[in-house]
Amino acid sequence: MKKVFDEVSYSCSKKVTNTYSTSFSMACKMLSKNIRQDIYNIYGFVRFADEIVDSFHDYDRSMLFEEFNNDLERALKNKIHINPILNSFQITYHKYNINKELVTAFMDSMRKDLTVTKYNTQKEYENYIYGSADVVGLMCLKVFVKGDEKKYKILKNYAMRLGSAFQKVNFLRDYKLDIEILKRSYFPNIQLNNLNESTKKEIITDIEMDFKNALTGIKLLPIEAKFGVFMAYRYYNQLLKKLKNTPAPEIKNSRIRVPNLKKIELLTRSYVKYQLNLL
Fold this sequence. Notes:
This protein is mainly alpha-helical. It has one domain (2-275): Farnesyl Diphosphate Synthase (Orthogonal Bundle), CATH 1.10.600. It contains 13 helices and no strands.
């Protein structure tokens, strides 16, 4: 029965989320049950695409990526695929009428990671972030508003700013990995391995503006999604504060993270703020 296979597919997407990201999976648990699985389905899809371009260095990544992209197209067209991650994603894609342009933009940015190592202009940088992060936020927003196009349009720009903030924090957190292993530099205002306090401050100020704008949108989210998204916002804000207080040379030489105990503390404090309507 197809229903059984779909349940297996859902389990796979949830497993991918819980395995690859403790912080994101913690935030997902704070979402209402009636939308949680669909967010797992989106995350599983974007995680697999990202893994191909970032992790499979001993294999032909270009071939694997194009095979994955072709399978994605078949999954969306046929409304089924034997790959459980793509099968679960196509269910969510059709259920909420997710715009195909969002999926295409995401895959285009992932494809760039196979060949592009430096973004020289602000426009190139922003285009990459749109495809790699903003559109993921918009896919999730479609789920949060349950496909309501009017609510989606109201919250669209806020969701994009939050996606941008998350991605830029990731860039700064993963600076050492990107430079040394992947040989990439995303920030257009710095050269490879040349992060200093001045450029770090510039980057952080930009992210803080994204977060400030995004918080307005979080307050307008439906109740089923608000606390989970607020939790993710709080986690990334905490990570940004830690990066802000970390000297640039240390960011270049280590991966900054928020300890699990701090994540639990954040969860508790976030819940109190949420319950007291202090967002």
